[in-house]
Sequence to fold (784 residues):
Amino acid sequence: MTIQAALGGSHCSEVWVAQGAYHPSPAADRGASFVIRPGVELYGGFAGTEGARDQRDAAIHPTVLSGDIDGNDDVDEYGVTRHADGIVGDNSFHVVLLGGAAGADVVLDGFILSGGRADDTGTPDGAAGGGLLCSASGVGQECSPTLRNLVFRGNFAVSGGGLACVAQDQGLCGAALDAVAFLNNVSGNGGGMASYALTGGVARPALDNATFSGNRAEYSGGALIAAGFDGGTNEAQLRNATFSANSAQGVGAIFNTGWGGTSTTAVSGSILWGNSALEAMSEAENGQLRFDRSLVRGGCPPGATCTGLVTGDPKLGALQPVGGIAPAHPLGENSSAFDAIPCDDVPVRDQRGLARPQGAACDLGAVEVRQATVTVSVSGGGKVDALAVPPALGAAIVGCGPGQGACTGRYRVEPVAPDLVLLLKPDVGHATQSVTGCGGSRSGNTYGIAALTADCTTSVVFAPASHRIGGTVTGLAGNGLILSLDGTESLPIGADGSFVFSTERAFGAAYEVTVRTQPTQPSQTCVVLNGSGTVGTSDVTDVVVHCGAAATYTVGGTLGGLAAGGSVALSVNGGPALVLAANGSYAFAPRFLSGDAYAVSLLAQPAGQHCSLSNAAGVVGSADVTNVDVTCAAGGAELTLAVSDDSSFARYGEVRKYVVTLTNSGNDVAAGVAVGALLDAAFDEANVRWSCIDGAPGASCTPQGVGAFADTATLPAGTRLVWIVNAPIRGESNAAEATFLVRADGAPDASDTDTLVLFRDGVDRPYGSGSNAPAAPGDGSAGP
Fold:
């Protein structure tokens, strides 16, 4: 359905119009307009998907009613004629036409009216109101529509380029306008708007939150003309309007005149700045132009009466979008129009719908500067300051603490939001526990609020500070060190370095760090330095736990029964001989860590005596070993040990035959002598086979065995025993040598070492068998 069809149908009382540019039809008829009949409300700014009127946004979805019926004006991307000077050809005389039956129940809301060309001087109203003509002519005729959220742009007329409110012959024009802008309209008089009362008519337009910018009149009233002629009465009222950059030969903003009639124009809370030539003027004896609590460049205009004028520079910004459908001139920094007047007679909302007041008072002009109040509430021990660039409007937040209630600061948040930082100042012994609100972010004891756009509250909580206890461990070599904090928290330590307990302690609390368990393997004694004190305002980090050198222990025992002049030789773990020549306690020189294994052996017996060991092997604990006892008795045996395989070479994978001989050259029986071999990794010990030859009377040994070579022998004085040990050498061994070591109680160790080779031939001796004699033909000992 077209707009005109909806407006013409009696069944439509409210019409929604989606974004787009719409032109009255028929296209060739300059008299074609959008005519709104009584009782109809017409709303623009819809996307087309809304389910409720308040879901629309006319700023995002511009809806254009255009008089460019032949489609050749200079228009923007939305089809809006940019400037009246850009009108080309035959445009509609009036984009919107309201007659004398358009009462207050007619609403036009959310549109851009553009491209009207009211230059039909052959009809009574054909030359007025290019964008919209509201005309009431005759007794009982009234044109009093509600006009909201409208932009009149790029329209032309002989009078009232954007809008004309005309009352004649006892008619009444009482149009009520709110949140409107007149931009780049042109006429002979009243470039933006004309209010005319003639021949007994009454023109009583009321404008709230209006912006007039870039309008031009050839003669006077570049923005607005208000006139009473021939018995007509004009009573125009403007509240919180902004006039800037309008021009005319005579008066650039407001021209008020009464010739044969009366014209009273009342202006309050408004700004007239930067218009040419004059800002405003009232002429003729029946013309009254009153300014109340407004700001007019140059002071009170000629012919006007003024009360409570505000002085100074309003610092108007360039015409720009400020929210809402209509652009405006916002107030700049340090504007004299900012918070300038009481709010007893101002519109409750500004041109874009922002509530008034935003601060302690109301601003002059069509738009209120957006402000925001930051409320800070503090609990606990501390205070808060607020720093802002630009600074707060009025008193800043300084020293806001608990018990003061809420602290507030008011800030201007446009054209840009302030850089606002809260400085968090905890009392001694307290810390900032939490900060929330206003969309800020915390860094240490500062809280930045980067995008302040509306009133908000920040809550700051200070609490008694608590800190952690820690320090450094040095010299630790052992395992199992455990530290304790106040006897309640245990902390295992595995290596040197820093440590910290997880339990926090409040400011002023006493603390003590102790060693709960000393390290072992090796055993150490650790001491605590700076281990106790009182928690201050930061973490404790200077506790030092120093562990001394690892404790070492000796291995020894007692020698008894040694005859005078005799000596016995001992060894621990195969080390150097310790020769003892007197009975009593002894100890080996090497020292051992706890956990070390030890084994003591007899290297040489005393002449004429036999000595035996008790507790010869074990593991060092946390004290000296003192129970490896040596007991000697008269008539001792003297044992010697020998081993040989008659070779210095051996092949990988070969079974070597070793001859082990144990001889007792002493004067007593050597009974229960332990004999055994220590084979290195080159041997396959599990497959060793051995046998004993006991040719002497009274001598005894185990006839044969498999696996590790270990036997117990008895040798009478002057006898010997022989063992044949067949020991395989691993074929996969990586060793370069094979050492066969044999031991016997009371005899020095004996060993045989062979170099390992792959094979030998008949020329390069020794032969593959490892022997030093030539191999018999075909015996297979030479290898492949």
